[in-house]
Design the sequence.
């Protein structure tokens, strides 16, 4: 059969070069009848599919395979072979099952979404496959909060000490206030435990969104296409930012990531533009930052024990022992752990990103030593208390006891 390439060359030589049919046949080494058919046809030749082979081994089991796939569309080909008693080539059976399976699988089309400026920022956690030194001789694989504007693809990200609610809220506020500079009308998350699950937001998330005047939307479970923009951003960071870099600490990781020029200067193929250019329209359509800082981080009240330490995220921090036994309020954010008692700061520490460590203020230890010495020192009897001391004979008389032999009077 004449190929499409031969058909195209024949028509070109005849129409454009003016060669005769005989000359074309000689030059291409084709039969003259082939040249005649090519010049008579205005359409390229098409291959006719081969008719199915009747009476083959596959044709005998195909009805049974179709019945199995109709009831169990995801049944593995090896199980199908066992159920229908297939004894031929397993590869041949797999190819035929793969050809039939799409006809019985439920269809789940993914729509192309168009995002208006300022409409949405997609959020996700990226776990880079590297361990970062976190102090105290420890290394840890820490989460990175990634936020991508859906319209402009403007990318912001930072490493967090944990995936708890307080740290997630603190991370979102830092990226919105210091890097994006505006608040989107919606924040899209998956079912992250620190944000909320089963349609119920975690404690503090609703208040955070209310202060920002935005709303939080959670994607359906097992629906990655909903936040595909930030998913691709995670992959972009792992393949383009991470390779070849060395990090001395989280305080070294975040500046490197924030200063990375390619993050928003690259041309996004789907937009044919750079995020740094499109983010101007995004910011203009977003909400302004709130006049007050939202409540972020973790905050709780506890009674200070005799060991004058409070625990925050598996680490212990010392507190002024002068407030032992009193209620104190502990506040932990991304950078510091502070403790107050009746509005007075009684502890202020740099937050440790390691685990199981003890952070001690030498001043607290010195105060504890003084208080312990005062507690153990013997107490002096006041002078006015001498008159209150009675002679023991008064008690003998009261109980009717006289003399040294203890005889009753």
Sequence:
């Amino acid at each position: 059969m004449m190929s499409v390439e031969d058909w195209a060359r024949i028509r070109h030589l005849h129409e454009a070069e003016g060669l005769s049919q005989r000359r074309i046949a000689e030059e291409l080494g084709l039969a003259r009848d082939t040249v005649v058919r090519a010049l008579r046809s205005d359409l390229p030749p098409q291959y006719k599919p081969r008719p199915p082979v009747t009476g083959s081994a596959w044709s005998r089991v195909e009805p049974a395979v179709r019945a199995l796939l109709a009831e169990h569309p995801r049944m593995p080909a090896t199980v199908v072979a066992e159920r229908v008693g297939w004894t031929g080539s397993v590869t041949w059976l797999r190819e035929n099952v793969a050809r039939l399976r799409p006809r019985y699988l439920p269809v789940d089309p993914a729509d192309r979404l168009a995002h208006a400026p300022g409409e949405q920022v997609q959020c996700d956690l990226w776990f880079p496959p590297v361990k970062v030194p976190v102090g105290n001789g420890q290394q840890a694989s820490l989460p990175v909060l990634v936020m991508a504007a859906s319209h402009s693809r403007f990318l912001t990200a930072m490493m967090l000490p944990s995936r708890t609610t307080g740290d997630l809220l603190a991370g979102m506020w830092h990226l919105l206030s210091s890097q994006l500079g505006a608040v989107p009308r919606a924040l899209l998350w998956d079912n992250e435990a620190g944000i909320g699950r089963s349609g119920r937001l975690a404690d503090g998330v609703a208040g955070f969104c209310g202060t920002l005047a935005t709303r939080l939307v959670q994607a359906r479970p097992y629906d990655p296409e909903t936040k595909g923009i930030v998913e691709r951003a995670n992959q972009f960071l792992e393949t383009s930012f991470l390779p070849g870099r060395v990090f001395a600490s989280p305080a070294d990781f975040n500046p490197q990531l924030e200063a990375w020029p390619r993050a928003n200067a690259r041309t996004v193929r789907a937009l044919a533009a750079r995020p740094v250019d499109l983010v101007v329209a995004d910011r203009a359509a977003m909400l302004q930052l709130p006049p007050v800082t939202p409540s972020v981080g973790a905050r709780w009240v506890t009674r200070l024990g005799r060991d004058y330490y409070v625990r925050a995220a598996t680490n212990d921090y010392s507190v002024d022992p002068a407030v032992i036994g009193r209620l104190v309020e502990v506040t932990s954010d991304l950078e510091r752990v502070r403790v107050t008692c009746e509005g007075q700061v009684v502890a202020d520490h740099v937050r440790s990103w390691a685990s199981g460590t003890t952070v001690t203020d030498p001043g607290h230890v010195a105060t504890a030593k003084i208080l312990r010495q005062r507690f153990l020192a013997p107490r002096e009897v006041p002078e006015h208390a001498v008159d209150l001391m009675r002679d023991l004979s008064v008690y003998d008389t009261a109980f009717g006891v006289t003399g040294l032999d203890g005889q009753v009077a």
